[in-house]
Design a protein that fits this description.
The protein has 179 residues and is an alpha+beta fold. 22% of the residues lie in helices and 36% in strands. Strands 11-12-7-13 form a four-stranded antiparallel beta sheet, with helices on one face. β9 and β10 form a beta hairpin. The longest helix is centred in the middle third of the chain and has 22 residues. The mean pLDDT is 91.
């Protein structure tokens, strides 16, 4: 049995949750998110709490899905109230990132051309400097995926430490080959 699924989610006063079959719709001050919950999970709204359980009590997979569903809905509630962000930093001579007028990113990462990245709907980027950006949004998965996609254009390499990395990421620089 999942310990996470047994914990109820307390619904904040500024969030409204609608349950339509297996669809959970969460509305808050920052926006609205929808998610389809697995068929083996039963979601109930009791007072100002959401309770998750397995439809078949003896099913281990049902309880595992209930724990996953609870975590996903909890992230949705956090997203529509506070939001999520990932901070990225660029390390390297001449590496720059800028936001153009159509809210797309232009990245100069040492290639012979400038990379233009089109932001998906619901993702916002804030530029702190030419070498730092913050990816923001209400969908945790989408914010993480966009940050990972941006990082994939030039991952930090271990010899000089050049590339794009998360603000809390530590890159261990290797020693150069000796003669």
């Amino acid at each position: 049995m999942s310990r996470i699924a047994k914990q109820p989610i307390v619904i904040p006063s500024d969030v409204s949750i609608t349950l339509i079959g297996q669809m959970v719709i969460v509305k808050g001050s920052k926006g609205e998110l929808k998610r389809l919950i697995h068929d083996s999970v039963l979601v109930k709204s009791v007072k100002s709490c959401l309770v998750f359980s397995s439809r078949i009590n003896s099913s281990v997979k049902g309880w595992a899905q209930a724990g996953t569903a609870r975590s996903l809905v909890n992230s949705m509630i956090h997203g529509v109230t506070v939001g999520f962000f990932k901070k990225l930093k660029l390390f390297g001579v001449g590496y720059r990132i800028s936001i153009n007028s159509s809210k797309n990113l232009n990245m100069s990462l040492g290639y012979s051309h400038i990379i233009e990245y089109v932001l998906p709907f619901g993702i916002f980027v804030e530029s702190i400097s030419q070498a730092e950006i913050i990816v923001k949004g209400i969908n945790k998965q989408l914010v993480g995926q966009v940050a990972a996609n941006l990082r994939a254009y030039r991952k930090s390499e271990p010899y000089k430490g050049k590339g794009i990395r998360y603000s809390n990421e530590i890159v261990r620089v290797k020693e150069a080959k000796k003669k």
